[in-house]
Design goal:
This is Methylaspartate mutase. With 140 residues, the protein is α/β, with parallel strands linked by helices. It is built from 5 helices and 5 strands; from the N terminus they run E-H-E-H-E-H-E-H-E-H. The protein has a 5-stranded parallel β-sheet, with helices on both faces.
């Protein structure tokens, strides 16, 4: 399964992206890591070149709810990316607490899951489900 990991537009942190890349590669998936400070347009352009099955957005600086909404809306504006699953996680708000309303806006914009609690087990489960679904399609 092709996975793309990316930071958000205003987030310059890299350790979270490297961690996610290694975490997903350990599950047997090829991962492209776009790095930090990725604008929504750059993210969309890269995804359009070779649509990933999963886009994992990560934020540490606390602006993930806002930047993520821009990125998800931009990706969902591209019909060619309808088959891509998009998730976001990390420290998404500056208040230091989860924001259910902001998370709901991300889901309404087309984000499959919002991991504002840092739940790596839930991400691992989702990756496994997507990989199993892909395997069933290939063998059908």
């Amino acid at each position: 399964m092709r996975i793309l990991v990316s930071g958000t537009a205003s987030d310059s942190h890299t350790w979270n992206l490297v961690f996610l890349q290694l975490f997903l590669e350990e599950q047997g998936h090829p991962v492209t890591n776009l790095g930090p400070c990725v604008t929504a347009d750059l993210l969309a352009a890269h995804c359009l070149e070779q649509p990933p099955e999963l886009v994992v957005l990560s934020s540490v600086n606390g602006h993930g709810y806002r930047d993520g909404l821009t990125a998800v809306a931009r990706l969902r504006a591209e019909p060619a990316l309808d088959g891509s699953t998009i998730v976001i996680g990390g420290k998404l708000g500056v208040a230091g607490s989860r924001d259910p309303e902001a998370a709901a806006l991300l889901r309404a914009a087309g984000c499959h899951a919002v991991y504002d609690d840092g739940d790596l087990n839930a991400l691992r489960d989702l990756v496994g489900e997507l990989a199993d679904a892909k395997a069933r399609r290939v063998t059908a």
